[in-house]
Amino acid sequence: MSDIHIQQQIDDINRKLDLVLEYVNDQRLKGNIVEDLVQDLSIIGKDAYDSAVDELDKQNIEIDADEIKIFFLKLLRNMNNFSVILTTFESLMDLSKDLAPLTKEATVNFIYRLQTLDQKGYFEFFSAMTRIVDNIVTNYTRKDVELLADNIVMILDTVKSVTQPDMLSAINNAVNIYKDLDPTNVPEYSLWKALRTLNSPEMKKGLGFIITFLKGLSTGQTNINNV
C-alpha cells in the first residue's frame, strides 16, 4: 500500500510540474510577443520621428527642446483649468441636450409662422413696399426728407382731421354726388332761373357754407362757426 501511495504522490508532482512548465512556456511566448511588439513600435516610432523631422525641416520649423519642456510644464500646471473647461463643456452639452426639444419646437413654430405670413402675402407686400421706398429715395432729396420730418406733426394732424367720421362722410357724399353727375347731360340754367335757384333755402345754405369757409381760410381761423 505504501508503494502505491508513493506512486500517486509522484504522479501528482509530475502533473504539477507539467502545469508549471506549461505556464512558464506560455509566459515565454507572451514575452516574445511583447518583445516583438516593442520592436515593431520602436520601428514605427522611429519612422514617425524621422518623417516628422524631415517635414519640419522642409517647412523650416525649428523645435527648441526647452520650449517643449516649458510647454509641457505649463500644460501640467494648468491641468485644473483644463478640467474646469472640460466640466463646463460637459455642462453645455447637457444643457444643449435639454434645450434641444424646446429649440426644435421653436424652430418648427417659426417656420410655420413664416409659412403663414407668406400665404397671407406679407412678403409680397414688403417686396412692393421696397419699390415705394426706392421711389422716395430716387425722387426726393435729403432736404425734402428733413422738411418732412420738421412738418410731420402738422401732416399727421391734418390726416387725423381728414379721417374723422364727419369729414369722411362729407368727402364721401361729395364724391358720390360727383360720380352721379353726367358731364355730357348737364341741365342749362338761364340767368333768371339761376337767380331763382339761388333764392332757394338750399342754395342760400350752400352759399352761406361757401362764404363762411372762404372767410375762415382768409382769416386763418379753425372755428368757422364763429366767423
Overall description:
With 227 residues, the chain is mainly alpha-helical. Among the domains are: 142-186, no CATH class; 188-227, no CATH class. Helices cover 85% and strands 0% of the residues. It contains nine helices and no strands. The N and C termini lie far apart (154 Å). The mean pLDDT is 79.
**Shape estimate:** rod-shaped
Order of helices and strands: HHHHHHHHH
Terminal Cα span: 154 Å
Q: If you average the pLDDT, what whole number results?
A: 79
Radius of gyration, rounded? 51 Å
How many H/I helical runs?
9
| Low-pLDDT runs | none
Q: Given the helix and strand composition, which structural class is it?
A: mainly alpha
Topology:
Elements (H helix, E strand, L loop, with lengths): L1 H57 L6 H13 L1 H42 L1 H18 L2 H9 L1 H11 L2 H16 L10 H8 L2 H19 L8
Quick summary of this structure?
The chain is mostly helical and 227 residues long. The chain has 9 helices and no strands.
Key terms:
227 residues; mainly alpha; rod-shaped
